[in-house]
Amino acid sequence: MTPKRQVTDDDEDDDDDVLPCATGCVCVCASVWILRLNLWARDSSMTHKTKRDWDINDAIVPQVGDLEFDEFNEWSDGHVRHIYSLHNEEAKKHISGWAMRNTNNHNVNILKKSCLGVLICSQHCTMPSGAKINLRPAICDKARRKQEGRACPNKNCRGGRLEIKPCRGHCGYPVTHFWRHSGNAIFFQAKGVHDHLRPDPKNSSVSKRAFGRVSLTGKSTATGNVRGSAGSGTKKSVIAGLVKQVKQQQNLMGKSLKRTTSSNPLNHSALEIYQFNACGKCTYSHCTCSYLEDTTRNHHHHHQLGQTSNSYVTANSWPGESTVIPCETPANVFTVNHQHITYNYPIYHHATPTAATAAPSKSPSLPYACISELSAYQPGLRGGGYNNAITNQCHTNSVISYESSSQLATPEPEFINYSQIKHLSHETQSCKSELPPTIKYNATVETQPVSSYMEDNYDYYYNRESKSDYDLHQQFNSANNTSLPSSTGHYYESANGYNGVSYFDTGTTASPGHSQSVQTQLDHGGGSYGSYYDHYANYEQQMAAASSFASPAPPPPPPTLTYHHHHHHHLHQATAATSSVTQ
DNA sequence: AGATGCGGGTTAT
DNA sequence: ATAACCCGCATCT
To answer: Where in the numbering of this chain does the GCM domain appear (predicted)?
Structure first.
């Protein structure tokens, strides 16, 4: 488990590009999608960096060498991804310093958790250490309810009560974590930027005081937010706690500043900025997106290609200037469906001009990515000037439509669309051969080259070291300074792996060759956390093997499935039916 | 008791 | 149709 690669959140960028906001709006960080497209488009000669790119929803995630795993980061923040060893105990337990609770996303393959925020004092009191009350909410609903309303543990606080400060760091919703077990790795992806401090550990003295483990007489031993300092009550720890909290607060401020006042975007790496590219409901200060108010029902968030793009492209096409940039129709138009992760996998569309000009076929409430935003990535459209007062509001008649896969005009990278899932056990037999089909995913992908511009800029986005005050927030990872996806080769070639194959759940299908052996290496038994072993793994293994050969074979016809169930995907049940994989 | 995960169900958009 | 939540249950620590 010796991690060869050390990473911090800062070396992560990410792909949370499609976010349905609470009010129905959607944040589209098209920039990232484009970057992803770039990755997808690269052929097998592409650099290692590209191989680092993956999404928790990818039909096939990279294979990682045993020595290439990330060090566990319990304080992941921002849009980050990590790959942990399947033997990493912390990863296996899906641990997080943040108070993350299970969120039922009705996808048994990907565990989703959402942040509960922090418990704060209703009086916003200050402890002797100078720190604020910042406790970890109980994960258990019942326990958490008991926490709320309790007296503030700060002896200097009068009348203060503990109350939840909910996390709103992800488009106005709590930050979410996703866990997926695949092969010998555990894939972790976080979405959103916590808009609150790190909560004290459960065993902190303050926490104990607050929740009865320690009598209130011990109030004077407040130590602030120092992990591991519980009960120490030393001056040193007090200072440390205060310093830590102050730093966190500074970082929180920094986040907002980055999102709102980056007058000189080039001072921040794209990755760095992207990390803060959280989308709020446009009522949140964190939100970096502009949006269109749909007079009928929804308001559409138009993620500015994120500050990510702003920081680099500074395109003339950038909406800045407080003007509504008329959307154009660039040669390369990428469309993205705006369904949220884990349920309806994002679908990347590299639309043809025809498709690009096609009017959105779906509900007018669907969000659209402004082409001008996307065009910002086009070499010829680069310009100068970054403007924070972005109002990249394009009109629906000139935006990129988010279409279903059925409207794909060209081979495109596409992600699993759970809405396409269907239980085949009783109906479909699109899966040829002896493989017992159960569930298939519409995951046609492509390897179509994208503009070299994006390729050229890949390094900028993905391999640039980003140091900022945000690092202060990553205290537990300060030593792992942005090694970025430097180690590589071990990553799956996305282009190969996705080359025109249709994805299917192999957890229920016989897998030829070595995949079987791989399967046997995995621990499916007993553990409470074993259920997230990727049911796709077999197929991934197959694809991995296939990709090792020269040319990808022509893709089999993508399965066309219909999802019958309301919204549940009982892969486990399907699996059990074939008794090839245990739960 | 609480953490954790599962999954049926509801609600809002 | 989609995703956020709520809830009860089961298992484990």
So the answer is: 52-211
